[in-house]
Specification:
The protein has 9 helices and no strands. It is globular, with a radius of gyration of 14 Å. 57% of the residues lie in helices and 0% in strands.
Length: 150
């Protein structure tokens, strides 16, 4: 069984990025978290190749510094905008990727029916599903309480 976590979502997204873009894991993190990396909170932060690999494989949680930054509603909206601007254009079938993430959400028994219902309501289009990405970043510890807007 797959869980709706960073590893499953980022792997799904990466599977739909065209080979023509040949993006490695570190490059993907720079594209995804560009707002965080441009902030004062990341002045002494850098992506460690081994740690990013563990994030992608589900062996480690995302850095608390990144999750703390995106807990703010304004920054969460920046994440949605960065994803919309930097990641979605690289994908050859973003709608299918969202469908796969949706399927993972449906099958994840660790997410309550109430939370699933709220997330399903926001699944009308690719950018709206960014809120599910936000939820996934904090699944198990925090919940995405406000909708992401780009």
């Amino acid at each position: 069984m797959e869980y709706l976590d960073f590893s499953s979502v980022i792997t799904t997204i990466r599977n739909y990025i065209s080979d023509a873009h040949s993006m490695n894991q570190i490059d993907m993190m720079y594209q995804l978290f560009v707002s965080f990396l441009s902030s004062d909170e990341s002045l002494d932060f850098d992506f460690d190749n081994g740690l990013v690999c563990r994030w992608f494989n589900g062996q480690a949680k995302i850095s608390p510094r990144i999750t703390r930054y995106y807990m703010d509603n304004h920054n969460r909206n920046r994440l949605a905008a960065d994803m919309h601007r930097n990641v979605l254009p690289l994908m050859y079938d973003s709608t299918m990727a969202v469908q796969e993430i949706y399927n993972i959400l449906v099958q994840d028994t660790t997410i309550s029916d109430k939370t699933k219902a709220r997330l399903f309501a926001e699944y009308s289009c690719v950018p709206c599903s960014i809120s599910n990405f936000c939820f996934m970043l904090w699944h198990g510890t925090y919940f995405c309480k406000a909708r992401c807007k780009y």
